[in-house]
Amino acid sequence: MYDTTPRDIPVHQAIARAVRHHGIDVLFGLMGDANLFLADHFVRGCNGRFVPAAHEGSAVLMALAYAQVTGAPGIATVTHGPALTNCMTALTEGVRGQIPVVLLAGDTPVANPRHVQGIDQRGVVLATGAGFEQLRAPDTAARDVARAIWRARVERRPVVLNMPADFMWAETPYAPHALTVFETRSYVPEGDALDQAIGMIASARRPVILAGGGAVHARDRILRLAERLEAPVATTLRAKGLFRGHPHDLDIFGTLSTPAAYDVIGKSDCIVAFGAGLHDFTTDRGKLTAGKRLVQVDTDPTAMGRSVHPDAALVADAGLTADNFVHWLDEAEIAPSGFTPELDPATLRTHVPGRKSTSHVSYVAALDRLERVLPQDRVLVTDGGRFMTEVWCRISVRDPQSFVVTAHFGSIGLGLPEAIGAGIAAPDRPVVLFSGDGGFMMGGLGEFNTAVRLKQDLVVILCNDAAYGAEHIQFLDRKMDPSLTEFDWPTFADVAISLGGQGVLVTDDAGLDAALDAIATRDRPLLIELRLDPNDVPRMRI
User: Fold this and answer.
1) Alpha helix positions (H), 279-317
2) What is the side-by-side strand order in the sheet with 293-298?
3) 49: nearest Cα among 418, 454, 417, 525
4) What is the pLDDT of residues 128-177, one digit of tens each?
5) pLDDT in tens, 197-221
6) I want to staple 421 with a disulfide (CB 3.0 to 4.6 A). Which of 9, 66, 168, 178 is the partner?
7) Which of 276, 234, 277, 274 is nearest to 256 (CA)?
């Protein structure tokens, strides 16, 4: 452990110790004038680990994935000015995904208001929706760190701690400081709202249970309710994998459903949603909730009716409420619905098979083969792009913590940094990243070598249709020339080799076997480049 002897120490050491005091042993970042000594002391003085990124935004993205996989706050650090502006997309991604991260951001010296890198850093941070916390004085360093970490956990969003560079070598007494995160006792409601919800559930003949990211802790209790009701279960994208293995698991609810699951949802007469946002993709813009009763359970009162207005809303804990529903169904001797006995479990998770191609790789068929060959204990990360929805549908995960989505802000190019962060969070498990060609050029090229340097067990499936696919299809839909969306990229498999990894190019279905063999024999980060026909990649299912 590190030295805790009380004495005056420089502020950069106080900040590093304060972070370490919170049980945080990994710091992602890129060093500059205002944070290099902080990072150094975190490693040499606090026995922490510093993970150096090639780009400041990547450091924040790594911290986001680390937080998603571990459940603990992710911590990153950058210097001032352009370093912070380089983090804006990543911070916004974290805000939209409600991910607790603290960014220790240097600021230009207070004594030099005309510094070349000086900007209004508070304004930059607030524009992303992230929280802003100021390092107020050298003597408040430990308390300011504690406040930033507390806010990130409670507010479930990134919080930036702004650190003036001229404070860093000021001497200050250090004492450990932490703030307790007070958890409100979980409860179930009473009164008319509960009576209405139970009445709707008890009278349903074809109920479906939906669980979102706010209900992943209540899996077993929700399944108990489902079995009591004889109701199939489904999840939002964020809770993908929660009910894996259950015979009546519909997998993802909404536009990403299998044809059979979509039909089941369409026939239902009551949806009981636990911790689910019910946005347009989940409800298929309201089509899947129209004409049926909707019971919404969430601990966040602002989630109620945000997209679709429920018939009954309960601000309550998912697990306790599921137990309460079962109790009152038993008390009233309500018979099971009989819905699941009507269903064929073999069809519920079966997607339409892919078509064969002679000149390119058959994308959907390749995904189906990859699902069988990729390591089963994988952490799955997806970049943004037209290819991603088929990956969400066809590539499974064992639980929601094994699935990292980088599409909360609709950006591309965020996948590889988040895959690195996921690998740091789960060092004993392989990480599989699906990326597009445009996204890899934007955000993957600079960080693939970082994964090599870190000796990570990473498999990148690069879906190369030589185009920006979402834009390509819009030109085609209007019978316009799509050539402006098309690119003559380098061979990404060769680029991966030049960056120190392995690379396999797959140009047609016949060449896929060699790539699948390479997965089994990999000994460093592996990139498999699938050459796709831009006119054959399925449309996004959102």
Assistant:
1) 280-283
2) 249-252, 233-235, 207-211, 270-274, 293-298, 312-315
3) 454
4) 999 999 999 999 999 999 999 999 999 999 999 999 999 999 999 999 99
5) 999 999 999 999 999 999 999 999 9
6) 66
7) 234
